[in-house]
């Protein structure tokens, strides 16, 4: 049976860990889904795989294009799509329009928005009222890279309290789950214990209700790994060797035989 937002909440209540990864194309999405991943995030981290230095330049059109491909490859997992920078911050009507296009045009079940400040809480409240499932995201928010950098957030009492309060406010706004990115493990544990919705950690310790990583990091395809990622295989080296072997055989007239 396909995974639903309500099922994720039930799994939190049951203590069942949630497995999440990113996907940007049909082939990888199909593999992740068949392997049993519960939640597939079409993340704006795709920007880096498209050659951008940060997530900021990626457009809604690019996200829609890749999300359609991902959804064509998925039968079971819940698909969530990031709304890219400046496609939801300008106004509530802009956010509803962008999120509505994602659900109408791709087949995804939910969207993810970064930040928990008051204006974002209001935006998410309206999205949920419009029938659009929303995943929240607090802690390190990559779309604020020029403001926050890529360093761990919530290390001081003041910033920890702010992130904690943002998480509570987002739950009250109606998000069905929360991404906690690159915050201290004890802060992530406090948030996880306080909220009734599942928390999905990325660099936030082992006390979250689930974990997400960027798939290219897991597979060893990224040029640089974040400090909290774990590389389970080195496909970059494997692919390089395969292409070199192919090139050698072509030049030596060994392929085709």
Automatic annotation (TrEMBL):
Family per similarity comment: Belongs to the PanB family.
Binding site for 3-methyl-2-oxobutanoate: 44-45, 82, 112
Catalytic activity: (6R)-5,10-methylene-5,6,7,8-tetrahydrofolate + 3-methyl-2-oxobutanoate + H2O = 2-dehydropantoate + (6S)-5,6,7,8-tetrahydrofolate
Record function comment: Catalyzes the reversible reaction in which hydroxymethyl group from 5,10-methylenetetrahydrofolate is transferred onto alpha-ketoisovalerate to form ketopantoate.
This enzyme's EC code(s): 2.1.2.11
Protein name per UniProt: 3-methyl-2-oxobutanoate hydroxymethyltransferase
Subunit annotation: Homodecamer; pentamer of dimers.
Cofactor note as given: Binds 1 Mg(2+) ion per subunit.
NCBIfam families: panB (TIGR00222), PRK00311.1 (NF001452)
Predominant localisation class: cytoplasm
Gene3D superfamilies for the chain: Phosphoenolpyruvate-binding domains
Species: Anabaena azotica FACHB-119
Binding positions (Mg(2+)): 44, 82, 114
A GO molecular-function descriptor: 3-methyl-2-oxobutanoate hydroxymethyltransferase activity
Pathway(s) this gene product operates in, as recorded in its UniProt entry: Cofactor biosynthesis; (R)-pantothenate biosynthesis; (R)-pantoate from 3-methyl-2-oxobutanoate: step 1/2
Superkingdom in the source lineage: Bacteria
Required cofactor(s): Mg(2+)
Cytoplasm recorded as keyword: yes
InterPro entries per the UniProt record, alphabetical: Pantoate_hydroxy_MeTrfase, Pyrv/PenolPyrv_kinase-like_dom, Pyrv_kinase-like_dom_sf
Phylogenetic lineage: Bacteria, Bacillati, Cyanobacteriota, Cyanophyceae, Nostocales
Catalytic residue positions: 181 (proton acceptor)
Pfam families associated with the record: Pantoate_transf
